[in-house]
Write a structure and sequence with these properties.
Largest sheet: 6 strands, antiparallel, barrel
GO molecular function: riboflavin synthase activity
Strand order of the largest sheet: 1-2-5-4-3-6
Low-confidence stretches: none
Protein name: Riboflavin synthase
Distance between the termini: 38 Å
Oligomer: single chain
Number of strands: 12
Number of helices: 4
Keywords: Repeat, Riboflavin biosynthesis, Transferase
CATH class of one domain: Mainly Beta
Function: Catalyzes the dismutation of two molecules of 6,7-dimethyl-8-ribityllumazine, resulting in the formation of riboflavin and 5-amino-6-(D-ribitylamino)uracil.
Strand content: 35-45%
EC number: 2.5.1.9
């Protein structure tokens, strides 16, 4: 688990194909690696990866074909900048929100514009994630815990303050940038709980919660 508070901007040092997968080597920048051991988890642009090799200024992690195809890690190149966060501990301040490091889908930056010292971004999420995104709710974008300012359909807006711009890769986003999105885990559990006893009968092809479902089961009047 993670908090969505980025600890360092890292740099992709090397990308080595290995048996159809990819081994990434990432220079960790200012990230404190003194308490990291082999097998520990580090979030890279919001994707939970396992450290398989370490030195004082970098680590390596294996990335599966599925992860490369479903996240923005497949778009990286040598020299790409990435957000880094070590896994939380029981002593960690939960400054953001609970983040699993399991990406739900790829979003796309639609626009950006300055707003005083902040920058406002408009992001388009995959249609299937729209129901989990709420105004003033939390969302994780490339590993960064953020508050949603406005939602319209599958598009939502974020206001990024100067500190976040300086401490993450968000400052480099432009129209068309692909971003990893993870919705608030509470929304996912709530959806499942609303199914009640019907949860055991739901399949990936049986559909999600609809207004008709809520009305049928007494959640709407």
């Amino acid at each position: 688990m993670f908090t969505g508070i980025i600890e360092s901007i890292g740099t992709i040092r090397d990308m080595q194909p290995k048996g159809g997968d990819m081994r990434l080597t990432i220079a960790t920048g200012k990230l404190d690696m003194s308490d990291v051991a082999l097998g520990d988890s580090i979030a890279v642009n919001g994707v939970c990866l396992t450290a398989v090799a370490l030195d004082s200024g970098s680590f390596s992690a294996d990335v599966s074909r599925e992860t490369l195809s479903l996240t923005s890690l497949g778009h990286l190149a040598r020299g790409s900048k990435v957000n880094l966060e070590k896994a939380l501990t029981l002593q960690t301040r939960l400054g953001g929100h609970l983040v699993s490091g399991h990406v739900d889908g790829l979003g796309e930056v639609i626009s950006r514009h300055d707003d005083a010292r902040s920058v406002r971004f408009s992001i388009r999420a995959p249609a299937q994630l729209a129901k989990y995104i709420a105004a003033k709710g939390s969302i994780t974008m490339d590993g960064t815990s953020l508050t949603v300012n406005k939602v319209e359909g599958s598009t939502f807006e974020l206001n990024i303050v100067p500190h976040t711009l300086s401490e993450t890769i968000i400052a480099d986003y432009r129209s068309g940038t692909a971003v990893n999105l993870e919705v608030d885990v509470i929304a996912r559990y709530l959806e499942r709980l609303l199914l009640g006893d019907n949860a055991a009968e739901m399949t990936p092809h049986s559909g999600a919660i609809t207004e008709a479902f809520l009305a049928e089961h007494g959640f709407m009047k």
